[in-house]
Request: fold
Amino acid sequence: MPGLRIFCDAPLSDSALQVLKQGTTSHELIFPRRGTESVLAPTEPDPALDTADVAFGQPDVSGVLESKRLRWIQLTSAGFSRYDTPEFRSFAKLRGLIVTNSSAVYAEACAEHVFAFMLAQARKLPEGISSRCANGSPQWVALREGSVVLKNQSAVILGFGAIASRLLELLSPFDMKVIAMRRNPRGDEGVPTVTPENLRGALGTADHVINILPDNAASAQFISAERLDWMKRGAVFYNIGRGTTVDQEALSASLRSGHLGAAWLDVTDPEPLPDAHPLWTAPNCYITPHTAGGHRSEPETLVRHFLENFSRFLADMPLRDRII
Amino acid sequence: MPGLRIFCDAPLSDSALQVLKQGTTSHELIFPRRGTESVLAPTEPDPALDTADVAFGQPDVSGVLESKRLRWIQLTSAGFSRYDTPEFRSFAKLRGLIVTNSSAVYAEACAEHVFAFMLAQARKLPEGISSRCANGSPQWVALREGSVVLKNQSAVILGFGAIASRLLELLSPFDMKVIAMRRNPRGDEGVPTVTPENLRGALGTADHVINILPDNAASAQFISAERLDWMKRGAVFYNIGRGTTVDQEALSASLRSGHLGAAWLDVTDPEPLPDAHPLWTAPNCYITPHTAGGHRSEPETLVRHFLENFSRFLADMPLRDRII
Reply:
């Protein structure tokens, strides 16, 4: 295949950029006028995109829709709601445009992040770290009695993809009873899997409810007041999917009423929440600022994932993490 | 065997006490004048001990040394330094007194606790939870870039017993490179195991140094300034053994100099540390108040572990968790 023009607006470290350059020597890398700060930040059209065959990053949607040569986009995020519209999908279909994301890059860090949430809650780390209580004191007894072991507990995982698969591996030494929810169960999940319509029973017995749902029309406010009510008293809710999938007022109310035992959120809507938002002061609500997928070697891993797909693209092989 | 007199000074919940009573119906339970608040609190001699065949709890050492009938003590702790003296050991040997501890009861919770520490550090949970930073902000970039995944990292485990065995199981999905240290390696550890004399190389390469050493003459201040220096720059130190095994001034200095990356401690010497202790303000030092072994069902689990050994004792079978 002759030299291709690769548009890259991914915010890369110097070392990651070197890896990208070395992996694309017989092709041409083109860059936007300025790099984006975050893979999640909104972008604007860039004229360079119009001449590209391949895009790696978060190319502006309107720019893509005007592009003449673009054949493949690899997004640097796992989420892709910006591109998940009927207009974009029909453009892609008409033009044979392939879109892949970087799920595989974030799956390990996201699975470890929600697993860190689960263990921090089980061992009551936030309370423990802020306490200077003495052995035998009432606070000490309460801390120990309030702690649990994950072993033999139960969990429901909402949304079954790369993160859920990895999380199941991490949980395997704990002999937990896990049920997954997936819109279209395939039978390869490795655990009992229900559809959204058959979720109620599973929600009612789970010690842990782990939300990994992406942002789309079907998932909007999926964690509603009703589904929160279905959860077992004292259950712990986790969200590393997208904030839009949760009725946040209802979540706050459930925590304040003592129905839900705790909530650990890496995503909210918006991010960050305004300072006056009730979730900041809801009891046992812990929020990290959308850092679940981050890790020290993220830029290099993003580039290597792109280069692996680039060699598949050149060889006309199926691409990994294809979403459109 | 005729009815035995079982002295119990373990601080039990009502439900745990019921389980104990049901499991010892043809025997006689005798209780001290008042229960102890903590399994770690110092006790005082109790006349009831003098008439007991079996003791379950933390019987006073001088009381044991004066006892006439005592044949077996099951401690409610994992640590047993109070009883680990030449005088006590020779008394036990002379009298055929068996001592068991409750290691098995705490192993799961302790292993999960230190694992929670490792993941909380990897995912930078304390910083994340206290941040309200925006996507793309410098603080956000620093948080994501400062986070790591445990997968493929390396660890050294100091002290190899029930907790280390369980921790190795929990770590297995992470493909970590683990080296254990044990005074007398037996070859059944499942990972490369070195003696204290050959620790330096392992300490110099480990991302995580996990201390599970018990309190005894050989372990006093084992984590010295010199061994801290041997650790890799940026390494993370964890202690769920005993506080006496660490030179705490040297640990504080290592954190303050930026050599050690972080320390997560469940045990200190004394507990709690005085408010002016430098570890409270050392950077990236997180301390939980000796809650690693605690869990909601702890009293019942202690009783069931005792009852299992009690039936073995009656049947003249080897007891579990025998230490003397």
